[in-house]
Amino acid sequence: MTTSSTEPTASEQALPEVAQPESAQPAAAQPAAAQPAATQPEMAQPEAEHEPIVTETKQNVEIVRSVRYGRILVVFAVLGGLLAALACVFFPVNPEQHYTLAQIMGFMAMIGAAAGLCVGGIISILLNLAAKRRKGTAVAIQSDVQ
Question: CA dist 42 to 37, 39, 45, 103, Å?
Answer without folding.
Answer: 15, 9, 9, 84
